[in-house]
């Protein structure tokens, strides 16, 4: 009977479902984009190694003013050497010094960033060489002007990513560097940064000839494993606090962050954004529920005589209520099914056409379906109760 009533008013029933369809589709698409973004960020951070630890200068108070961490000069060569000789829970260590500027070859130039590191820098950052070799410990000792470049730098300076630039000499801030290796392409990361627009050189060369500084911007370390990252952080903290002569009650003048910690922070941020988007989309489901209740009230009014006739031949109040409740639930669940299909279609478009990271979590489909069932019951109850409480004599006489 409920199914027949819906089919007899196809257009009106579809309009009642429309709010549910749009609401469910919006929730699923928002959840898919949020989940996809979270997975994409995790995958991007994993490319740099899940056991990566980064040591940076800490912001300290001077005269009641907290200083900018980038201006602090707390990481020195002694720290790097102590970590190399004393740390037992790390496998590879490299200082990191960076400077932005213009690279030039002939009449071509490009803006890029040069990073100074040790011979283990590429291994820690999970860089791979396409051509040539990395610089050696001997190059670091002698502050040799050699470098490894990314494919974007090769393309901008030599006209093609496939150009054999090994052995060529480029200039960075007027300092000549001989190219000894070319990195494999990594492309753009999730933050829109071109990971191939880099030059990597011995840290001693960058410190003396480019940055003119005696301190490191950071020190990067590979822990023995991801599980031992926290213990490695504790071990590194002990070494650095001793080197910096920090008393027991004083705060550190450095910070150590693990890749896992960054993943959790980014994941938490993405979860918050997803919740906000889903809540905004879920308001359309509330509006859709009100729309269903409105249509059901109109339907009860239109079918007052029918209700009176059914009750006069023996239909109980629970029978009338069940009829209208089932009708409301059918409208809601049919809208949910169509909305789920539209949500999957929208997620596919977001991923393949608009290039948004998108991944539909299966539990969001189940939750959407259950919410729509609740909406059908909750907003269908008032019209169904109104129908069940009608006086059959008055209902038959209704005009």
Describe the structure.
With 399 residues, the chain is an alpha+beta fold. It has two domains: 175 residues, no CATH class; 126 residues, no CATH class. 54% of the residues lie in helices and 18% in strands. The protein has 13 helices and twelve strands. The strands form two sheets. Strands 4-5-10-7-9-8 form a six-stranded mixed beta barrel. Strands 2-3 form a two-stranded antiparallel sheet. Strand 4 and strand 5 form a beta hairpin. Helix 2 crosses helix 11, helix 9 packs across helix 11 and helix 9 packs parallel to helix 12. The longest helix is centred in the last third of the chain and has 44 residues. It is elongated and about 105 Å long. The model has no long low-confidence stretch (mean pLDDT 86).
The major beta sheet can be summarized as: 6 strands, mixed, barrel
Low-confidence parts:
none
Structural class: alpha+beta
Query: What's the arrangement of strands in the largest beta sheet?
Result: 4-5-10-7-9-8
Query: What amount of the residues lies in strands?
Result: 15-25%
Question: How many beta-strand elements?
Answer: 12
Look at the structure and give the mean pLDDT: 86
Number of helices: 13
The separation of the N and C termini measures 23 Å
């Amino acid at each position: 009977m409920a199914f027949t009533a819906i089919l007899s008013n196809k257009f009106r029933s579809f309009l009642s479902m429309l709010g549910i369809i749009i609401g469910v589709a919006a929730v699923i698409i928002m959840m898919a984009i949020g989940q996809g973004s979270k997975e994409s960020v995790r995958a991007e951070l994993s490319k740099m190694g899940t056991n990566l630890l980064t040591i940076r200068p800490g912001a300290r108070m001077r005269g009641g003013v907290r200083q900018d961490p980038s201006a602090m000069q707390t990481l020195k060569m002694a720290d790097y050497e102590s970590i190399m000789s004393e740390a037992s829970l790390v496998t590879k260590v490299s200082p990191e010094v960076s400077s932005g500027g213009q690279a030039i070859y002939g009449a071509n130039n490009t803006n890029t960033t040069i990073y100074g590191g040790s011979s283990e820098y590429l291994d820690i950052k999970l860089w791979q060489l396409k051509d040539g070799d990395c610089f050696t410990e001997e190059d670091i000792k002698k502050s040799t002007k050699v470098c490894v470049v990314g494919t974007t730098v090769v393309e901008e300076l030599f006209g093609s990513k496939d150009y054999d630039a090994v052995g060529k000499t480029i200039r960075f801030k007027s300092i000549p560097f001989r190219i000894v290796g070319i990195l494999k392409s990594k492309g753009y990361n999730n933050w829109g940064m071109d990971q191939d627009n880099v030059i990597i050189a011995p840290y001693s060369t960058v410190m003396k000839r480019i940055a003119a500084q005696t301190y490191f911007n950071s020190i990067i370390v590979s822990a023995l494993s991801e599980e031992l990252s926290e213990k490695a952080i504790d071990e590194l903290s002990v070494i650095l606090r001793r080197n910096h002569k920090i008393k027991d009650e004083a705060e550190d003048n450095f910070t150590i962050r693990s890749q896992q910690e960054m993943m959790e922070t980014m994941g938490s941020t993405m979860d918050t954004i997803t919740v906000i988007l889903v809540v905004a989309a879920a308001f359309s489901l509330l509006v859709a529920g009100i729309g269903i209740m409105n249509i059901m009230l109109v339907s009860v009014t239109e079918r007052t005589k029918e209700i009176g006739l059914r009750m006069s031949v023996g239909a109980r109040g629970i029978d009338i209520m069940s009829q209208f409740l089932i009708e409301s639930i059918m409208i809601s669940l049919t809208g949910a099914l169509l909305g789920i299909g539209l949500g999957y279609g929208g997620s596919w478009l977001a991923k393949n056409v608009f290039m948004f990271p998108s991944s539909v979590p299966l539990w969001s489909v189940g939750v959407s379906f259950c919410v729509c069932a609740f909406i059908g019951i909750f907003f269908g109850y008032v019209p169904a109760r109104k129908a069940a409480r009608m006086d059959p004599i008055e209902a038959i006489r209704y005009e």
